[in-house]
Amino acid sequence: MLKLGLGKYRSIVILITLFIVFDIGVLAMTFVISRQLTADAISINLAGQHRYLVQKLAKTALLIDQDATQGTFDSSGKSSLNEVKDLIATADRFNAIIATFDGGAKLPDMTEELALTPSQDTQAAALFALVKDLWEPINAQVQALNQPKDGHRPDVGPLLQVLIPNNLNLLSTSHILTSRLEALSAAKAAKLRAVQMAGMAAALVNFAFILYSFLGQLRKSDSAVERAQRETEDILRTTQEGLFLLDPEFRMGSQTSQALSKILGVEAKGGENFLDLLKPLVTPKTYDTTKEYIELLLRHDVKEKLVASLNPLDCIEISAVRANGALESRFLQIRFNRVLQAEKVTHLLVTANDITRRVKLERELKDSERRVQDQMGMMVHILQADPRQLQDFLRHASDGLNQINEDLRTASPTTGVSTPRIDAMLRIAHRLKGDAAALNLEAVSQSMHAFESVLQELRAQTRRSSEDLLPVAVRVKGLYAEVNAIQDVIARIGQVRGVVSVEPPKPAHDPEIAAQPFVRQWRGFAQQLAKRLGKQVELTYQGLDVDGLSSQLREAVNTSVNQFIRNAVVHGVEAPADRKKRGKSESGHLSVYVSDQGDGTIELSFRDDGRGINPEKIRLAAVRKGRISPEVAKGLDARALTLMIFEPGLSTRDEVDEDAGRGVGLDAVKEMISRLGGRIRIGTTSGEYCHFRVQLPVKAEPNDTNMPDRIKEVA
Amino acid sequence: MALKLMIVDDSNIIRSKINRTLSQHNMEVVASASNGEDAVKLFTTHKPDVVTMDLTMPRMDGLECIRALRKINPGIRILVVSALADKSTAIQALKEGAQGFLCKPFSEADLTEAIEELLGDD
Predict the structure, then answer these.
(1) Is A295 on the interface with B (CB under 8 A)?
(2) Nearest chain A CA: its distance from B117 CA (Å)
(3) DSSP of A447-511, one letter per residue?
(4) Which of A124-128, A579-583, A658-662 shows the lowest mean pLDDT across its residues?
(5) Of B90, B99, B117, the CB nearest to A310
(6) Domain at A242-354: CATH code
(7) What is the domain class of A2-211 according to CATH?
(8) What residue segments make up the domains of chain A, in order of their start?
(9) Is the Cβ pair B92, A307 closer than 8 Å?
(10) Which CATH class is domain A511-697?
(11) Which of A119, A182, A402, A564 has a CB 3.0–4.6 Å from the CB of A606, allowing a cystine?
């Protein structure tokens, strides 16, 4: 770790070391210099003492001489004896200094060696030699005065003889020597000071350099840290996931992603206790389990992968009250991943996602799967249905779903699908719903109904990007599965028939019905619808054998009749009590007639004796649905209004249910007929009847060849 | 040498499914118990190496049983086989010292994978 840290700061460490070495050097130098200066001061002082000693010697000698000549000499000779002693002591001191300068001895009051001696400099040495020369005779005379006899007057005459002529000379020589030594010391001190200054300057330069490179490095690493922090912030601000770190005390890390609060639906701040935040969102049991789960994750003896499946927050439902007061339910997924450091779990990385969309789609898919699995019930109906009708239905279902799938597949990723395209899808869905209901394929009919609802929702949206088309695609996939399931069931029935003798359903006693499976089916459908709406109807059929028509015509007739039945029973036929009041039979009458016109066309006639079409109701409905403006509506006559029942998206029923109110039925019929090159007419009298007449060419001239003819896999 | 296995589950169907599956995977089923009490008794006599453990059982539940078995042999390897509906019990079981967890319903492949995972630790 230390080695790692040094790598980054290596140059700085080296510079600081250099700086310290410099400093120690300068300090040592200062110490040496100050010591030398002290030592030099002693030398200078000693040299100075010479002058003083010479003067003292002269003064004492003259005093003794004066005493002798003026007779003031103490007869006991005691005082002059003291003076002689003084004289000798002075001379001794002088000698000691000379000895010291010569390097032979050390003065008793000196603690240190001399640093500066006259021998270091030729001029000083010469001066010193002169001092010694001058001093020599004086010293000899002083020493001669030694061993004084009590009572004898000391004779300083010879001393004075040498002292007086040399005194001044010695004094001045000593003075010059002192000055010389002072000059030498000053020169040395100046030199040392210069070195010291240089050292200090170098240290300062070094220091400045350290400062410079250190600041540079600091700035560099600061900007790197800043950049990293900015990146982290960008990530946390932009990510769609709720992200944060959780410590073993369940506290959230200081940095959390911006999406977190939105996903959780509550304000989430760093440093908060995550469990406290969670508490109001989940059940007490989930709360407890979460706590246990996190504790388990923080232990490292349990495998992360193993416990992941036990995450109690893998899918939690959270209810919140929206701004408009509606209760909104969302699904969240909160996952935990271990953050390891040195193989120890230090934190958990928590990821929160809103998975509402996914959960809902999954549920829908499961629903449709469940319906698909309900094959037993379907099998019963399939066994009852006419095989040819069933085959027609399956073919049309495949074609229709292929068409829708193709439209979805080729939809622009940005603008999605156009409204006319959605209308076309709605028509397909509606027709298949009717056909399925007619064949008693309840599950398929329901799925188609749900599919219609999804399409209606999409139609109402302004945004139809690929993401919005996802639910539609999911539905289509489910419908494919259902259609395939029916085919599976048929195949299985075929297998069973091969092994076991299965009797086909016994023909009904009515020969008309027995001969016409279509009529039987229409009648069943009409009865079923009427029963659900609390009405009564009877259906009669006349004309040619529908089964004998080409499959395309058969399908067209069947689809049209089914839609007319729906239209008549839902909108036309009145409730039994109403009919009675109007003097009609309680049971409404639907009559269907298919005839060959002999001119290459067939005519389908469908008539009910219900309340007919009320143009005023259509006028109101068209305005309410925003199809036309009130002004335009005012200008329309009864005929124009009646024809509006073939317009897409118009229904006079307010409620949307499985039977009617979708308003796409008649327009789907009209579209189909015109595609086959046929035409449709309508006749009605309010309160009396409604009559549809459809002409279809026997030889079809399809205007639209876009319909793919085999099932394609869903992308 | 085949590892000795004990199956603890109150469902006869589950017991035979585990037995069938793991017998083919070099494991010898030495005992099976339908409740915790029996499990502890059989554990002492048969000394299995691995135990599969249901959690909700009559007469001593799985958690208590795990505790008892670990007291007898702390080195025992335990695979909890339980419905996911009760996550908190499963978490408890892992805290008690079970090393593996398999969620009911499971396929044979799920079971063998869980056992391999359980034994792959050392």
Answers:
(1) yes
(2) 9
(3) HHHHHHHHHHHHHH-S---HHHHHHHHHHHHHHHHHHHHHHHHHHHHHHHHHHS-PPPPPPPS-H
(4) A658-662
(5) B90
(6) 3.30.450.20
(7) mainly alpha
(8) 2-211, 242-354, 360-499, 511-697
(9) no
(10) alpha beta
(11) A564
